[in-house]
Amino acid sequence: MMMNLTRMRVFNLEDHMTRLLEEFQERIVYGDQDLLNIFFTRYPQGIFTFTCRWNYHAEHCLGDALCADGPISAIHASRKVVLLKQVPAFVALHAAMGNVSAPSLINVDVLGKLKEASFKLGQNLVDHFIVPLRTSLWNTNLSNTASTGCTKELRQQLHLLRLAASRVDNMTAQAAAANGT
Asked: Does this model's pTM top 0.70?
C-alpha cells in the first residue's frame, strides 16, 4: 500500500485511528487492516484506487478480465501463483529475475539459459532481464494451460518493457560515466 504521509499528517490520521480503535476495539480481528478498512469506508476521499495497469495480477489473466488500460507498470504476484506455476507469464518473470526453480512450463534448454543469464542488480536490464524474459515467454507452451492471457499480453508489451529497460540502462551508464565508475 502506498501512502502520502504528508496528507495523512495534515488529516490527523493518528487521531482518527485512535478514535476508531477505541470505538471498534472489541470487534476487530486483524488490527491495522480492519482499522484501515473502517477508516477508508468513512473517508473514501482518502484513498486512491490504482487502475489495473499499476496492480496487474493473476486475475487479469483469466478470460475477459484482461487489463487493457495501458502498458503493465507493476505486477502483483503471490508466491502461490509463481510456485504452483498457475500463471506462465508470472513464472517467466520470476525465472528472468534469477529466482529459477524448474518451471515445467518452460523448455529445459531455455531454463538452462535463464540460469546462466539470471539478472543481478547493476547489470544491463535489456541483456540480463528483458532478453531472458522474451525467451521464456516465447518458449512457454500455451496449449498446456488455460491461463494464457497474461503470456499473450506480456508478449505484446515486450517492446515497451525493452524501451523502458533501455532508458534505465542509458541513465545508469550516464551516471556511472559521470561518477567515473
From this structure: no
